[in-house]
Amino acid sequence: AAYLVAQLSASLDVVQRGKIVEKFDPSLTDSYYLNGMQESVERETALQPGKVFPDFQVFDKDGRKYTLADFRGKYLFVEFSASWCGWCKKELPFIRKAYHALKDKNVVFVTMMMDNRKEAWLHEIKEYNIEWYCLSDLKGMKNSPLAKAYNLGGIPDSFVVDPEGRIVCRDLRGDEVLETLSTLCN
Fold first, then answer.
1. CA neighbor of 168 nearest in space, from 106, 85, 81, 97
2. pLDDT tens-digit readout, 110-125
3. Whole-number Å distance between alpha carbons of 55 and 107
4. What is the pTM of this model?
């Protein structure tokens, strides 16, 4: 039952999934699927607007380390992507448009590449002319602590973080990137 519920509830929001988890008998706490749902609900709850954005440790193509503290004092648009993600590539023109419109404002753009091969990551930067920060830990979706910290069930995914490091919103797509960031930065 827990397996079926986990599969069927994956598309529900965090509140709905939390209510489902609460309905299970406490004797089922050893269930792999129920535990996975509970952990996902807890991680997702920690990523709601107003919550502190989890810290990260990533690197640029030259090996310079970056953490959340490097971007304090500005709005931060963080987009999770990968060289193998076709949907991610469709978001690049919208991010580029927002970057060019707002690069002189109080916002920093960061693409976090969820690749595990440096060659693929570097090719992506060059091929798609990514002008803003393009960072990675080169551990891939399965092994990166980023995937777990940000509860990435898939990509692309994005967050807007305020100058104090709190989440403003998540999962902007298309023109929402420029519209939302323009409102915040003016």
1. 106
2. 999 999 999 999 999 9
3. 18
4. 0.85
Residue type, 27: S
| CA 53/CA 75 separation, integer angstroms | 12
Alpha-carbon gap, residue 30 to 182, rounded angstroms: 47
Alpha-carbon dihedral sign for residues 121, 160, 182, 156:
positive
Domain boundaries, the chain: 2-45, 57-185
Residue type, 82: A
Give residue 91's identity as a one-letter amino acid code: E
What's the CA gap between 137 and 113, in Å, rounded? 8
The edge-to-edge listing of strands for the beta sheet with 57-59 is 65-67, 57-59, 133-136, 107-113, 75-81, 157-161, 167-170
For 57-185, CATH number? 3.40.30.10
Q: Is the Cβ–Cβ distance between 143 and 115 less than 8 Å?
A: no
